[in-house]
Design a protein that fits this description.
Strand order of the largest sheet: 1-2
Number of helices: 5
Distance between the termini: 71 Å
Structural class: alpha+beta
Shape: rod-shaped
Oligomer: single chain
Order of helices and strands: HHHEEHEHE
Radius of gyration: 26 Å
Number of strands: 4
CATH class of the largest domain: Mainly Alpha
Number of domains: 2
CATH architecture of the largest domain: Orthogonal Bundle
Mean pLDDT: 84
CATH superfamily of the largest domain: Winged helix-like DNA-binding domain superfamily/Winged helix DNA-binding domain
């Protein structure tokens, strides 16, 4: 069975319902309406041919199949969140060329700082020049 985007989205929504404890709380947490969250759960149950949740007006409870399925959905949701965080980190991390030119005795003191900077920001290329000829 090949998964499409909608099925993956439904799996993440299902994981949120379980983690938040209700359709309403999950809807608020992920920014969807309760009706859309309910639609995703019903669609998943229909596609899988099993009931995932026992629902009443006040509570939800996982079925045995739902409990098994949740474990996989949780992993997928965590991996998606990790992938998104990695991209956010890349976007916020400085990158590019940093040119540093020091003259005189200061150059000797800054070498270890430049090495530390290189480790902190590996996407930087640091061009450092030091001249003992003070100008």
């Amino acid at each position: 069975m090949t998964l499409n985007f909608e099925q993956l989205k439904s799996m993440v929504v299902f994981a949120q319902v379980v983690e938040q404890g209700s359709l309403t709380a999950a809807a608020k947490h992920i920014g969807l309406s309760r009706a859309v969250v309910s639609y995703h759960i019903k669609k998943l149950e229909s596609q899988l041919g099993v009931k995932l949740l026992n629902r009443s007006t006040r509570s939800i409870a996982l079925t045995e199949a739902g409990s098994e399925y949740y474990q996989s959905c949780r992993i997928i949701a965590e991996q998606a969140a990790t992938a998104n965080q990695q991209i956010e980190n890349l976007k916020s991390e400085p990158e590019g060329l940093l040119k540093i030119a020091l003259y005189g005795f200061l150059g000797g003191y800054i070498n270890s700082s430049i090495r530390s900077l290189s480790k902190l920001f590996p996407r930087h290329f640091i061009l450092y020049t030091n001249s003992n000829n003070a100008k």
